[in-house]
Amino acid sequence: MSINQLNALSKDFMPIFLIFELSKINQARTLLITALESVYTIYSPGRNCSDYFSNEKRD
Fold it and tell me: Which domain of life is it from (predicted)?
């Protein structure tokens, strides 16, 4: 294969690699947001931590 053919080939596949990289970034961002939301839910003012962790219903 010549260098020109390799360059053309890499240009064809570049969007696939770019999408893959962007999806990894998006996945990391989603994970960070989820972690922050769970921390905020547990430690938010006015919410009792024991209510958050207990699953049993109170009579």
Answer: Bacteria
Question: CA 50 from chain center: how many Å?
Answer: 28
pLDDT at 59: 46
CA–CA separation, 1 and 39 (whole Å): 54
Q: How far apart are the first and last CA of the chain?
A: 76
* 17-59 pLDDT, tens digit each: 777 788 888 888 888 888 888 877 776 666 555 555 555 555 4
Q: Who contacts 9 (Cβ-Cβ below 8 Å, separation ≥6)?
A: 1
Is residue 41 a contact partner of residue 52, using CB atoms and an 8 Å limit?
Answer: yes
